[in-house]
Amino acid sequence: MNTPFSKDQFIDVFKNYNETKFPLHVLFYFFAIVAVYVLLKQRSTTNRIINLILSFFWLWMGIIYHILFFTSINKAAYIFGALFIVQGILFLIYGLKKNKLSFHFHPDRYGLTGIGLIIFSMVIYPILSFFNGHVYPSSPTFGLPCPTTIFTFGILLQSTKRCPPVVLIIPFLWSIIGFTAAFNFGVSEDVGLLVAGVLSFTLLLIRNKKIANE
């Protein structure tokens, strides 16, 4: 896929973002850890907290990363930003208003796959990034689209209800778009993004069908 920017420009966006927004990366990890904690401990506020965190992540990526930073080298980022904002709003609508997204960890193929993706996004992804030569601040940190989309799929796999298909569309599309662009520039850790998207989308559709037949 041809891109309107070079590899150096692509990496420089990460660098500019990371240097400008440090130390918010620590806060993003804190939010993710809180989401995992309430998922495993199952509090009365679990669903509200997780949906708010997911919504915040997607709104942040849409407004701050895509629109404020990525548009400097790619005007299509305005479209990406709008889609990410829509995704953030969907978590508010389906998670809080309609109560269609509830989460609880079960040690089955869905839950365990989800936990694996969460660990990959928060721990393994930055390690692979480092060994692939993408050293901070010139690296895609947690809170940026690719690792955070993997995290999102990990959480969605913990869903206890039929996951609304509309909630899956934008993350799935980004798993393909983000992987294609990033992989062309040697961000090979984003193979995990494509795997997470295809695997999670398939598993969640299977689970939806199973729940519908019960």
List keywords for this structure.
8 helices, 0% strand, mainly alpha
Model description:
It is a single chain. The chain is about 75% helix and about 0% strand. It is mainly alpha-helical and about 210 residues long. The protein has one domain. Helix 3 runs antiparallel to helix 6, helix 5 packs antiparallel against helix 6 and helix 5 runs antiparallel to helix 8.
In short:
The protein is 73% helix and 0% strand. It has 214 residues and is mainly α.
Structural class: mainly alpha
Main pleated-sheet profile: none
Strand content: under 5%
For the record, give the distance between the C-alpha atoms at the N and C termini, rounded to a whole number: 43 Å
Radius of gyration from the alpha-carbon trace, in angstroms: 16 Å
Outline: globular
Element pattern in H and E? HHHHHHHH
- Per DSSP E runs of 2 or more residues, the count of β-strands stands at 0
Low-confidence stretches: none
The proportion of residues forming helix, as a percent range, comes to over 70%
SSE topology:
Elements: H1 7-21, H2 24-41, H3 46-69, H4 77-97, H5 109-131, H6 145-156, H7 165-184, H8 191-213
